[in-house]
Design goal:
Blueprint (H helix, E strand, L loop, with lengths): L2 H7 L8 H17 L11 H7 L7 E6 L5 H14 L19 E5 L4 H13 L3 H6 L4 H14 L4 E4 L6 H14 L4 E5 L12 H22 L2 E7 L6 H16 L4 E6 L6 E7 L7 E5 L13 E2 H31 L1
Parallel strand pairs: 1-5, 1-6, 2-3, 2-4, 4-5
Antiparallel strand pairs: 6-7, 7-8, 7-9
Helix pairs in contact: 1-2, 4-5, 5-7, 8-9
């Protein structure tokens, strides 16, 4: 980012002259040219980075899917991938916009911060959550958990577990986090939990969701962050499912939502697929991408999760080996 563009972005929101707007547009184009079209923050998930070119500032992305397809799992993976690769020097005013990682805020409206941390540890070490909670783990697995927790303490990932929060309260807390610690990406799990407690019928609920989305999009623009929102949809073939899809397409058409993705499981329960919805009639779907393995063909439909976990285990085995080597060196140094 050039100095003039950085100065414009750091000014108070309000009217911009066409000259300032042109500077910002050209700055984005120059960044894309320099970095091969990857102008946003990498999620570490090939399906998102290939289609969206990373998470863009001021964009609002919906991650939709039915119950139990892995929405929270994917959201936490994205959060940790971004936060764990963050470089502090990226926040100086003249730094390039494209960088590794960022500061992440995670509104976990469905589970506690402890539960979310346990889930992240499980996903990073491939040790099932149920076994972690029961203590049914081996010594080697425990070493992996310890190493992972030590690494997690260093990452700028901030979790808010407050339930029943309103959009106004959420926005105020996001602004404070941005001001005090910095904020690049905000993840919300999940959208329907921001609805007011009182009922009002299905039409009223859709109107409320549209207002919430509009408020979140305004927040993304105001404090210059990217927002990812988890959205739980009903079972296919039901009237509620049709309503959910109409809502997503309507928000895409209005441009309050920049990207809407759908997670699903085909007949093979060990596979997950991600598709991108396009604007237009209900049911239209863009390209379907794989989830998890970065070197895989971006047009393939599914991924075997066992392959993904095998890669994770290999990475952690290498980490444990490095820890053991450092311990041996420390013991030798102490003895001498």
């Amino acid at each position: 980012m050039n100095m003039k563009a950085a100065k414009i972005r750091n000014t108070e929101r309000g009217f911009h002259s066409i000259e300032e707007a042109t500077v910002l547009a050209l700055d984005r184009a120059a960044t894309a040219l320099e970095h091969g079209d990857q102008v946003g923050i990498s999620t570490g998930v090939a399906a998102f980075d290939n289609r969206m070119k990373g998470l863009q500032r001021s964009d609002l992305t919906i991650l939709a899917g039915g119950l139990g397809v892995g929405k929270t799992s994917l959201a936490t993976n994205i959060a940790y991938n971004i936060a764990s690769t963050y470089e502090r020097k990226a926040h100086v005013s003249d730094a390039p916009k494209v960088r590794r990682g960022g500061v992440v805020g995670f509104y976990s409206l469905a589970m506690s911060a402890e539960e979310l941390a346990t889930r992240i540890i499980s996903e990073q070490t491939s040790v099932p959550v149920s076994r972690i909670r029961r203590g049914d783990i081996t010594e080697v697995e425990f070493e992996k958990l310890v190493a992972c927790s030590q690494e997690m303490q260093k990452v700028p990932l901030y979790i808010d577990e407050t339930g029943g929060i309103s959009v106004a309260q959420l926005s105020a807390r996001a602004r404070r986090l941005k001001r005090q610690r910095g904020l690049d990406v905000l993840i919300i799990d999940y959208l329907q939990l921001l609805l007011p407690r009182q009922g009002g019928g299905r039409d009223h609920e859709v109107a409320e969701l549209a207002q919430i989305i509009s408020g979140l999009k305004s927040l993304a623009n105001e404090i210059d962050i990217s927002i990812l929102v988890v959205f739980e949809i009903h079972d296919a073939g039901t009237p509620e499912y049709t309503r959910d899809m109409r809502f997503l397409h309507a928000e895409l058409d209005k441009r309050t939502v920049d990207y809407a993705t759908m997670m699903g499981r085909p007949a093979n329960a060990d596979a997950v697929e991600i598709s991108f919805l396009d604007t237009g009639q209900v049911g239209s779907t863009g390209a379907v991408f794989n989830y998890g393995v970065e070197h895989a063909d971006p047009e393939s439909l599914t991924i075997d999760l066992s392959d993904y976990m095998a890669h994770k285990m290999k990475d952690w085995d290498q980490t444990i080996q490095r820890i053991d080597e450092n311990l041996r060196r420390f013991q030798l140094a102490s003895e001498s």
